[in-house]
């Protein structure tokens, strides 16, 4: 257990994201280190992710209760109230416990003079909780829980489907796992889960299955020895589409945290060489941890994917997986803070980096080799438009269609996020003419 107040820690995380521009991936693990009990870690994550998912609505309803905005040093109290309101609306925590713990958080946050305000605001919100739950919002950003710049892009790209994308983005993400085919068949593992009383359904990717109820994956049969791994349904398609063969020299660029590296090795144990590259030495530690858990080997290198001469001088590869840095607009349900951290101007900058990396990777692909371009984005500028421009300027590049309707004018396979399905992803498979 921890002596830290969980609601105070939630407020610190929320403040770090919305005011200081930190990602949840940076701020939340720091706060979770205070806790040993997995339930406390889980509740802290649920509050922080939930606030990010529903931020405009919480903020709108909270501000009505305040005579004046809480600014400056009082912003942390605004954040603790957001955490309290989220719990009242969206969790099963008893209202009296939410209110008392949130009031107590003020003392840990060195704002004992704010306890009366916090108590009064939360009690008023609790009395009106039914109306708050049923409220319809006029402002599109508040109604859809998406920033206006992103809504405009989604509406332009998917005039018939943008609402489905928004709805999927606002859901809690499903828990997809990857069966390790080198350990057992998927059907055998599902039988093992059934014996443990764990319900699961298969996905339409070879090794994928989804748990119907949240669980501690580290306690699943064989997890600690690599029999199964957490990986989204859409992300699992990478290894299947690249289809590495025995004797191939393979490069996974922008590889962290290593799920795709491991999946390729699971599916083809006779890969001659697997090189995994990432810009961050720290993130490569995660790749090594995943390899170690499953019992796999790969050569890890840190470096900028735009400059392979620095980390792969004179080398070429038979197959390259380029999981390009992107806006992550296809995985918003897993990273709801990205809605409020990302800016419209970022998209053009990301597209330029993608162009540079794609050109650099093409130069080290062997003639006759295959490059799979992948993003977890749903924005055409990063996906189909990127590949179309590349094909137009690159004489030795040829599209290898994944879907029958693909063409040089509309290349690649765009997956949109689906409730209970996979995340938003884009794939384009390219062959280098011999």
Automatic annotation (TrEMBL):
Binding site for S-adenosyl-L-methionine: 254-260, 278, 304, 323
Signal peptide: none
Sequence ranges assigned to domain SAM-dependent MTase RsmB/NOP-type in this UniProt record: 165-433
Main location: cytoplasm
PANTHER family per record: NOL1_NOP2_SUN FAMILY PROTEIN _ ANTITERMINATION NUSB DOMAIN-CONTAINING PROTEIN (PTHR22807:SF61), NOP2 YEAST -RELATED NOL1/NOP2/FMU SUN DOMAIN-CONTAINING (PTHR22807)
GO function terms (MF aspect): RNA binding; rRNA (cytosine-C5-)-methyltransferase activity
Protein name (Swiss-Prot/TrEMBL): 16S rRNA (cytosine(967)-C(5))-methyltransferase
Entry-linked Pfam families: Methyltr_RsmB-F, NusB, RsmF-B_ferredox
Subcellular location: Cytoplasm
Function recorded in the entry: Specifically methylates the cytosine at position 967 (m5C967) of 16S rRNA.
Family membership: Belongs to the class I-like SAM-binding methyltransferase superfamily. RsmB/NOP family.
Enzyme Commission number(s): 2.1.1.176
Residue numbers annotated as active site: 376
Any one GO CC term of the record: cytosol
An example Gene Ontology biological process: regulation of DNA-templated transcription
């Amino acid at each position: 257990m921890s002596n830290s107040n969980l609601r105070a820690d939630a407020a610190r995380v929320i403040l770090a994201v919305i005011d200081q521009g930190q990602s949840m991936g940076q701020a939340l693990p720091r706060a979770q280190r205070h806790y040993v009990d997995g339930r406390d870690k889980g509740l802290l994550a649920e509050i922080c992710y939930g606030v990010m998912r529903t931020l405009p609505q919480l903020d709108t309803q909270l501000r009505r209760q305040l005579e004046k905005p809480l600014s400056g040093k009082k912003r942390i109290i605004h954040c603790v109230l957001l955490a309290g309101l989220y719990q009242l609306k969206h969790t099963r925590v008893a209202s009296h416990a939410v209110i008392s713990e949130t009031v107590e958080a003020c003392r840990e946050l060195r704002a004992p003079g704010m306890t009366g305000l916090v108590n009064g605001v939360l009690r008023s919100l609790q009395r009106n909780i039914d109306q708050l739950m049923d409220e319809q919002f006029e402002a599109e950003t508040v109604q859809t829980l998406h920033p206006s710049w992103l809504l405009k892009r989604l509406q332009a790209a998917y005039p018939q489907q943008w609402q489905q994308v928004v709805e999927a983005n606002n859901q809690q993400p499903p828990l997809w796992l990857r069966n390790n085919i080198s350990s057992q068949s998927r059907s055998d593992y599902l039988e093992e889960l059934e014996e443990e009383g764990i319900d699961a359904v298969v996905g339409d990717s070879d090794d994928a299955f989804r748990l119907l109820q949240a669980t501690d994956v580290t306690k699943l049969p064989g997890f600690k020895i690599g029999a199964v791994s957490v990986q989204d349904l859409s992300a699992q398609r990478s290894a299947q589409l690249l289809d590495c063969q025995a004797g191939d020299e393979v490069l996974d660029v922008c590889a962290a945290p290593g799920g795709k590296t491991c999946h390729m090795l699971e599916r083809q144990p006779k890969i001659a060489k697997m090189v995994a590259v990432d810009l961050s030495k720290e993130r490569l530690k995660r790749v090594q941890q995943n390899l170690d858990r499953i019992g796999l080997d790969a050569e890890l290198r840190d470096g900028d994917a735009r400059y392979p001469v620095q980390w792969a001088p004179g080398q070429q590869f038979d197959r390259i997986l380029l999981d390009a840095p992107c806006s992550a607009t296809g995985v918003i349900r897993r990273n709801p803070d990205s809605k409020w951290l990302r800016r419209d101007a970022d998209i053009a900058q990301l597209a330029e980096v993608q162009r540079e990396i794609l050109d650099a990777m093409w130069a080290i692909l062997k003639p006759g080799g295959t490059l799979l371009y992948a993003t977890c984005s749903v924005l055409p500028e990063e996906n189909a438009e990127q590949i179309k421009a590349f094909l137009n300027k690159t004489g030795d590049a040829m599209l290898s269609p994944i879907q029958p309707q693909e063409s040089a004018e509309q290349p690649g396979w765009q997956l949109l996020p689906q409730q209970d399905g996979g995340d938003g992803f884009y794939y384009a498979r390219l062959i280098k003419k011999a």
